Structure formats: C-alpha cells, structure tokens
Amino acid sequence: MSLASATYPGLTFRQDYFADHAAWTALVSLLQDTFGIDLDPLRRLGGADPTSMPFGWFTDDGLLAANLSAFAMPIVVNGRAVNAAAFQSGAVRPPWRGLGLYRDLTRKALDWCARRGFEAVVLYTDKPALYEPYDFRPMPMHSYSGKAPALALGASPARHLDVWRPDDLMLLHTALKSRVPVSNVLAVHESAAMFLINTQFDPGVRLSWLEREKAVVAWKATPERFALIDVVAAEVPSLSAIMGALGVETASVDVLFCPDKLGWTGEAASLEGATRFLIRSATTTVLDAPAMLSPMADF
Ligand SMILES: CC(C)(COP(=O)(O)OP(=O)(O)OC[C@H]1O[C@@H](n2cnc3c(N)ncnc32)[C@H](O)[C@@H]1OP(=O)(O)O)[C@@H](O)C(=O)NCCC(=O)NCCS
Predict the structure, then answer these.
(1) Fewest CB within 10 angstroms: 6, 13, 18, 269, which?
(2) Residue nearest atom 45 in ligand 1 by C-alpha distance
(3) Ligand 1 — pocket residues by CB below 6 A?
(4) Domain that includes residue 44, residue range
(5) Does residue 174 form part of some domain?
(6) In testing the pocket of ligand 1, which one of 103, 110, 124 has its CB within 8 Å of the most ligand atoms?
C-alpha cells in the first residue's frame, strides 16, 4: 500500500513493503545510519519475521525518512500464553524529526495491532517518555547469578553450531519451530528471526548443539563465569546437564532469563542500562518472579 501525503509534502506513506527489495534496502540503511546495526544478514538467515508489518514514510527518491515495524511476538507471561505484538526499528532521519512523523507511525502501528486483536504490545526503548502517552508501562527486567551446579556426569560433548553452515542453519530453524518457552514466567514462544539476527550482533555469543538433549544453547564464558543466554529445545534440560555437555567448569553462573525450568536457582539482580522493556496491555502485568526476556529475543 502507498499513499502520497498533503501533510508531509514530498513523502509517501507505505506499509508492508518488505517484499520490495529497494524498500528493504532503504530500511537497512535507515537502521545503519540511526543505530549502527546491520539488519541485512537476516535475508540470508531465512528472512524477516513473516508476520512483520513495517510502516514507513519514503521520499520520492526512495530514501526511508521514518519507520516503525510491528510483528507478532507471542510470549508466555506467568504461565499464560499472551498474543503480543512487538514494535521495532523505530527511527526518523534527522531532517524529518520534530514534524510528528513518529507520532503518526506509532498511531498507525497501534491501530494495526488493535485491528489484529493483539492483547499486548511490547518494545525496548531508551526513551520511555516517547511511549507514555500510549499507556506503555515499564516492566523491570532481572537476570540471575549464583554458584555453578555440580556438572552432570556422562554427558556427551556438545557440538559448535555455525549459522552460516547450511546444515546448522536448518537444524536451528527446526529447533526454533518446535521450542518451548525457556521460562514459564516470561519468554518468547518462538521468535526465530530475532534469535537468528541476534547471533550476528554479539560475536561473543556461542551456539552449541546438545545431541542427547536435542537442545541449542546460546552461551558465553570467561574462565570465572558462565553466562547462559538461551536454550532452544522441546524440553529445557537442567543447567547441570547443559554445563556438563559444554564442559565448562566455572565457579559462577549468570542466567539471562528466569531459571524456573533449569533445576537451579540464583539471586535475581535488576538489569542495568538505559534500555527499558515496555508493555501496553489492558491487564496489569506483575511477574510472578523476577525475569527478563533472553537477549536472543531482543528486537
Ligand atoms: C525519537 C524519534 C523517533 C522521534 O521522531 P520524531 O518524528 O521527531 O517524533 P515526533 O515529531 O513524531 O514527536 C512525537 C512525540 O515524541 C516526542 N519526542 C520526540 N523526541 C523525543 C525524545 N528524544 N524523547 C522523548 N520524547 C520525544 C515529541 O515531543 C512528540 O510529543 P507530542 O506527541 O506530545 O507532541 C527520532 O528522534 C529518532 O529517530 N531518534 C533516534 C532513534 C530513536 O531513538 N528511536 C526510538 C527508538 S525506541
């Protein structure tokens, strides 16, 4: 869909434009210029989330002046499946800021969510004030830290996964399709596209395949600390089995989601940093336990 505008002369509104290669390239360029991130590898990792609905204002020569994308991101919250949408890629190029373009796109994206019957909308931002008028509220995020468990004995060694090897990418796609949420307190159901692009944003994240447990594990380690970032499996193995298969023997562990399925517990710590997780929902959402969405679900 495309619509020239009387309010914004020289700009044309378009939505659902990902199938147009030039328009996708214009979005990659907007995000590179605004946030310094490269979304383009996503094309070779299976493409954008199929539910994506981008809303954008384009100049006559094809530059994307302003964008906000929505996509379906089903999550589990306190054991209940929540039909949520997520907003991402919100940006306006400097020459077009202060004209109300972002307000316009936010309203259009929220209207789309209402028409589609999403019961919640979530986003990450370092500018929460931007979303207060639309009743988005912060949900505090917490990671967990504690002592490493005794490693499970007799584990078969894990294998390194490389998303750029076709067989490994296929295995990842299959695992992501049949995964269960990594936590019952707060987690995504699938979010395959986000998981795959997030492998590109942090080169320190390692991916391993645990054959016996049929689990993909996203993790990091220093000689002192092991960080468990996500587990993609039809049944989440224990932390002891995961560390046993990876053969990591650190004293301390950080888990970057609520560890209710890991057979381990640690102490919750509030997540530092300027970025906030916001939720807009008719029901107040107080989590049963401190939790966070895995960074592999970042969007
Ligand atoms: C933040 C940004 C998207 C705003 O775009 P914009 O088109 O200039 O915003 P608008 O003119 O539509 O203003 C919409 C509202 O947001 C407010 N606003 C604008 N920039 C803001 C900021 N940095 N912090 C808080 N509020 C802001 C405006 O005052 C306006 O409020 P109003 O509706 O009460 O009048 C744009 O400055 C940008 O791309 N910044 C860099 C990337 C970024 O931060 N993106 C948001 C990611 S979550």
Answers:
(1) 6
(2) 91
(3) 34, 66, 90-92, 97-103, 125, 127, 129-130
(4) 2-118
(5) yes
(6) 103
| 91, two tokens | 């940006």
User: In the chain, how many domains are there?
Assistant: 2
Minimum-distance ligand 1 atom for the alpha carbon of 106: 12
Q: Please report which residue ranges of 9-59 form alpha helices under DSSP H.
A: 21-35
Residue-wise pLDDT tens digits, 8-59? 989 999 999 999 999 999 999 999 999 999 999 999 999 999 999 999 999 9
CA of 159 to the centre of ligand 1 (A): 45
Shared-domain flag, residues 157 and 215? yes
Residue 106 lies in a domain: yes
Q: Is residue 108 part of a domain?
A: yes
Sheet holding 137-138, edge to edge: 2-4, 11-15, 53-59, 64-72, 84-92, 120-125, 276-281, 137-138
**pTM value?**
0.93
Residues 148 and 265 in one domain: yes
Taking the CA atoms of residue 298, residue 216, residue 146 and residue 276 in that order, the dihedral angle to the nearest 10 degrees is 0
Residues in the chain, overall count: 299
